[in-house]
Model the fold of this input.
Amino acid sequence: MADPMRIRAQVAGSNATVRVLMGHEMETGQRKDSAGKIIPAWHITDVTATLNGKTVLTAEWGPAVSKNPFLQFTIKGAKAGDKVGVSWKDNRGDTRTDEATVS
Done:
């Protein structure tokens, strides 16, 4: 299981800025190890964000995203106390979901 995501969601006016740091190796499948063998691809393919259970963002990623990706986005109409959830799925079928409260 992957490390927990670090999620921060802060209200500014009628919007909330959400910052997410995801712990993931994000291998492209193009690098080689010390023995010269190709390291298999392993990267996040789908990301979903929710506000109080309602989907507010979906994204499809590929191997070009860096290790331990950082994602920032704004949610209109969010207020303090709302719940922001972020989920990802990778090309091996692993998943991770974490949640934070808007402050």
Remarks:
- DSSP finds no helices and seven strands in the chain.
- The mean pLDDT is 95.
- Residues 31 and 37 are 8 Å apart (CA to CA).
